[in-house]
Task: inverse folding
């Protein structure tokens, strides 16, 4: 979870204020006032140099909350105008992230740096360890020539005084595909051709500089219209809010939606289809198959790992099947997918049945703005209850277990889990694709972009441990998935 | 000695604004203080409707003391102070 305290707190508070502004009689003026309400005249300044900079940064964050890219803001447009443009907007963007570059200023560039702890020793292991001749001695101490340094960290490991450190840029470090970089001006920016929308940078930045471009205004507009709007809630939503899932359903309806579907319902279809496909592939002689329900992984395949495609299940995601079911039930309806992560925004954008994606933070903000006390509500049942296994799709290992349990003979499968995409696990997947074989003879690989699975998504609200407990308690009271 | 009572607000605002993490207290408090401290979840304590609104949520009440922007560490240190640790 991206639980970096205050930065996340501010983002949520801004979302609440945007929703409250929308629900007021004067959205534009109330939106304009957000930075002033949050940082009123005379207030002690919590983080930055002065109240004016605080307000400027809150304005930038509000721009993202209204769904616009912060990078394109030229500072002359008022939040009132942004609010109006958000209301007039008919289309949503396929670019889901935006960087608040003003916040990047506090973050040093990625480099290897010799600290004052350098003793200027005689052995000079740093110089000997460097293959690029980047280290020299100036005034008796080691100095690194940044133009020659390749950031290999050999000197960091060689120094017996731990005097050499790697200054890291958390967003760059967290990105598994090198899509976010601080450029020479010191500002981070995202290369959307490489970005897999995993949201790891959003969670990693201690300044909270990477924002999701929210669709909350578009969703509020849909809720206000005459059209029916239904919410599809991902399995990982259990444990993200107080109360039971059935109280949560009531709360979502109270917030203005017409109906709520459990995405676990689609997960049952995914697990069943994937089990069938698994048998076919193994019978055809393929050594292994990977799951295909994680949106971040699917983006990775598309942009960086096409060689693994032959091994990836063709089965659709739980979102896909649930949206299909919802559309069949209500033909003329707007569908909002309620998601733990930014990657599902990309998937939702590509799925014609999905109109909008709202993350857990945004749903939480909607409840707060509408003063909905979930634990005090009645329970509303689902028309179709999902299986125990579908309900654990949201944590790492759950998908593999579902497929296994759906198979007639559980012994035919040897599952393993890629628990989080990072540079190492991507290398492992590349190796499997190249050799056509998976280590340890495993034949079903569950791939989860986030460590811990969906409960580790960037927009989750609870710790993984308590979230998993809540999911297990709920799943344990559900029926097993039928065998194929 | 009377038990110290810790009430973790499970109102929507507190939970969404970070109170979810405070559920960890259910495990930590009995382990650390035995039966000297009692921790319970509570429906909305009504604190988010007073002047700070949600900007200071999540809230926890340790006896009569309101802990705002509560974290596990903050709550434990308030308990420690009360117990004179």
Result:
């Amino acid at each position: 979870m991206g639980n970096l305290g205050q930065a996340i707190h501010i983002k949520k508070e801004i979302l609440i204020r945007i929703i409250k502004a929308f629900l007021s009689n004067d959205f534009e003026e109330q939106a304009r006032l957000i930075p002033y309400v949050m940082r009123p005249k005379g207030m002690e300044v919590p983080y930055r140099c002065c109240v004016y900079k605080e307000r400027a940064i809150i304005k930038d964050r509000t721009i993202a909350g209204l769904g616009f890219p912060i990078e394109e803001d030229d500072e002359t447009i008022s939040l009132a105008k942004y609010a109006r443009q958000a209301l007039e907007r008919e289309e949503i963007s396929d670019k889901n992230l935006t960087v608040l570059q003003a916040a990047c200023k506090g973050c040093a560039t990625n480099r290897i740096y010799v600290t004052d702890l350098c003793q200027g020793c005689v052995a000079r292991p740093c110089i000997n360890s460097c293959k690029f001749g980047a280290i020299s001695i100036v005034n008796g101490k080691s100095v690194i020539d940044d133009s020659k340094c390749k950031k290999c960290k050999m000197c960091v490991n060689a120094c017996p005084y731990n005097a050499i450190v790697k200054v890291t840029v958390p967003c760059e470090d967290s990105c598994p595909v090198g899509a976010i970089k601080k450029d020479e001006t010191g500002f981070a920016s995202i290369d959307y051709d490489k970005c897999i929308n995993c949201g790891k940078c959003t969670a990693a930045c201690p300044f909270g500089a990477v924002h999701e471009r929210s669709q909350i205004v578009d969703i509020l507009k849909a809720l206000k219209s005459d059209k029916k709007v239904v919410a599809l809630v991902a399995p990982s939503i259990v444990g993200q809010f107080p109360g039971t899932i059935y109280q949560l359903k009531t709360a979502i309806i109270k917030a203005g939606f017409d109906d709520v579907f459990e995405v676990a319902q689609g997960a049952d279809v995914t697990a069943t289809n994937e089990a069938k496909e698994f048998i076919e592939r193994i019978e055809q002689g393929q050594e292994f198959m990977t799951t295909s329900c994680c949106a971040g992984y699917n983006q990775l395949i598309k942009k960086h790992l096409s060689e693994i495609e032959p091994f990836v299940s063709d089965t659709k995601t739980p979102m896909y099947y649930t949206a299909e079911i919802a559309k069949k039930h209500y033909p003329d309806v707007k569908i909002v997918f309620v998601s733990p992560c930014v990657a599902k925004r990309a998937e939702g954008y590509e799925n014609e049945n999905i109109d909008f994606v709202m993350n857990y933070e945004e749903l939480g903000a909607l409840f707060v703005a509408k003063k909905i006390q979930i634990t005090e509500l009645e329970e509303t049942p689902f028309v179709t209850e999902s299986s125990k296994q579908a309900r654990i799709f949201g944590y790492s290992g759950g998908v593999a277990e579902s497929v296994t349990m759906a198979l007639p003979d559980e012994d035919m499968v040897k599952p393993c889990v890629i628990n989080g995409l990072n540079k190492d696990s991507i290398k492992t997947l590349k190796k499997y694709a190249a050799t056509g074989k998976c280590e340890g003879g495993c034949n079903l690989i569950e791939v989860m972009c986030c460590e811990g699975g969906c409960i580790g998504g960037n927009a989750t609200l609870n710790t993984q441990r308590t979230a998993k407990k809540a999911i297990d308690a709920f799943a344990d009271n559900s029926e097993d998935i039928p065998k194929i | 000695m009377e038990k110290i009572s810790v009430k973790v607000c499970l109102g929507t605002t507190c939970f969404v604004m970070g109170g979810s993490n405070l559920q960890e207290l259910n495990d930590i408090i009995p382990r650390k203080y035995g039966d000297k401290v009692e921790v319970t979840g509570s429906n909305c304590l009504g604190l988010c409707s007073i002047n700070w609104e949600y900007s200071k949520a999540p809230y926890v009440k340790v006896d009569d003391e309101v802990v705002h922007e509560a974290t596990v560490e903050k709550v434990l240190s308030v308990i420690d102070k009360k117990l004179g640790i």
Chain A has a mean pLDDT of 94. The first strand of chain A starts at residue 97 and ends at 99.
